[in-house]
Amino acid sequence: MKEDKKVRNALLNYMQWPVFLSVLVIFANIAVRLVSRQAGMVMLGFTVLYLIGAWFALWLGKKRAMGEMVAFASSYNESQKQLLSSMELPYGVADMDGRFLWTNRAMAAILKDEKSARKNLTILFKEITPEALAEMEHSLEVHASYGESRYKISLKKVEIRPEDVKTGTEAKQLLAVYFYDETELYSYMKAITDQKLVAGLIYLDNYDEALESVEEVRRSLLVALIDRKINKYVAALSGIVKKLEKDKYFFVIKQKYMPRLEEERFNLLEDVKTVNIGNEMAVTLSIGIGMNGETYIQNYEFARTAIDMALGRGGDQAVVKNGEKIQYYGGKSQQLEKTTRVKARVKAHALRELLETKDRLLIMGHKIGDIDSFGSAIGVYRIAAALNKKASIVINDVTSSVRPMKERFDDSSDYPDDLFLTGKEAAELVDANTALVVVDVNRPSYTEEPELLKLVKTIIVIDHHRQSSEIIQNATLSYVEPYASSACELVAEILQYVADSIRIKSLEADAMYAGIVIDTNNFTNQAGVRTFEAAAFLRRNGADVTRVRKLFRDKMEDYKARAEAVRQAEVYKGAFAISVCPSEGVESPTVVGAQAANELLDIIGIKASIVMTPYNDKIYLSARSIDEINVQVMMEKLGGGGHRTIAGAQLADTTVDEAKEKVKAIIDAMQEKGEI
């Protein structure tokens, strides 16, 4: 608008110069008349003639100049239109809703197959939404595909104003649309990406156990068949594979094969299980892949992180670490229990060495702690006491399931007053000689007091849940065994090796025994040989079954809530029980919800149960299964995690109906992908 005014004023000044000169001549005539009357009269005649000539020149010249200007503007406008129409860069004008008003020939050639009614940016390109157009300030750039080509689409706001600015008519906003063809550039970038190196590691999960299950003369054949499967699989991807150890392999492939592997969901996981020459135990393996690192070394480190995560999650699965993004495939099989306790003994000795260098020990479980979290914390306290170390257990909120057991410790004179501390109280005690033991949880955000993880330098993790992408990064010692039934089982084994002749008090044995009983649902779920051995060890140290049973009898309100959850359960697709547990009048509704999920598994035909409990403005999900369904993978898709047969998640800002629909959608998606 300012530029229009400048041009208009310049033309107006140029056209009106005779008027300015006429005024000057009149003043000159007056000056001459004051000097001489006769000269003034002569000058007056010339002045009149000049004014008549200037008027004719102004009138005729203006008309001719305007005609020439209109002709020039028309010619310039036509030239500009021709230039825009013939410009090779696809260009168009659209309204603020995205509808094309005009396109040049290059743009029309791209959109030639589209009907005029469909020539709308929001219809042609899903990347351009009405919301994005409404929110854009001056410009917007998106990358989109159209047909077989890819374009960078640049949108810029322009204002079109009427010819007559005096009318006060508001300017109209339009969109200038530019298409920049990136097809060739994208193909080059894709070619470079496809040629990138992908590092991978393959570990056999149960190599020793599988060999022991076959007669000795056939063991070499079993190994040869497994080698052949792996070599053939990698060779089909034009990759190379190298055997590092008897049960470990390293391979490299090009990145262009990754979509194929992901689409096939790493069928080597299932293929290797078909190797059978009389071995009673099927061989399973884990795959860790690292890609899109800055260097080859970083890709290898990604692969190592991925394989550690695959093993920490129970094996028989593939984990792909793509930069910061982590994806999981497989994980259908139950991890086999290790028959040897060598690892437990090694971890026990390492734990002892760490604790001997520290003066104070803090022990922390997960939020809304259960009896497994409490019992394992008590077991670690006994280890610290045996090493003459000051120890305290961090508990912020005591649930109804834990309260009866905790009250027994509060009433006992054998334990110090500061046995139980809140998170804030524990934080005040932290110094350089403090160690932190995290039990029954390996996700930082789920711990009782996440801030302690930042304050304490020496952190030990003891857990039986499968690891997720969110792990405690700076752990000095980590003992995560998904095959274990409970954290109490792991701590009970450590107790037997950490020091000679540790005597556990009956009160402590009760707490740990209760943790195993609750997590195994009375030894019916995830209970292996070592589970019963740990329970036997605790029984020898004074654990009383009857006493534990009395402590964990239900209140009438809890029993009714659990019964209501079972009564209103919906059976989805004939195998999934989905229900809602009422929380009104129930002290610990999440615990009751978990109990209801366990009970639903006793119904014939139910493969998995999911119970939702609204509590503290969140929806708590408890998922359980017997053997066929991996509920941990299911809950991970909702931001949770857990164990293969016991898992959970928390949903904020969600209603019960929305949570139920999310669960059903995940079940549908997992069935389509063959994960169920």
How is the biggest beta sheet arranged? Answer: 6 strands, mixed
Sum up the overall morphology in one term. Answer: elongated
Supply the number of helical segments.
Answer: 25
N/C terminus separation? 66 Å
- Share of residues in helices: 40-55%
The percent range for strand residues is: 15-25%
* Strand line-up across the major sheet: 7-8-6-9-10-11
Radius of gyration: 40 Å
Annotation, overall tally of beta strands: 23
Low-confidence stretches: 164-168
Family: Belongs to the GdpP/PdeA phosphodiesterase family.
EC number: 3.1.4.-
Binding site for Mn(2+) 2: 372, 440, 464, 519
Function: Has phosphodiesterase (PDE) activity against cyclic-di-AMP (c-di-AMP).
Brief rundown of the structure:
With 676 residues, the chain is an alpha/beta fold.
Question: What keywords describe this structure?
Answer:
21% strand, alpha/beta, single chain, 25 helices, 676 residues
Describe it for me?
The protein has 676 residues and is an alpha/beta fold. It contains 25 helices and 23 strands. The strands form four sheets. A six-stranded mixed beta sheet has the order 7-8-6-9-10-11. A six-stranded parallel beta sheet has the order 14-13-12-15-16-17. A six-stranded mixed beta sheet has the order 18-19-20-21-23-22, sandwiched between helices. The radius of gyration is 40 Å and the shape is elongated. Mean pLDDT is 84; it is low at 164-168.
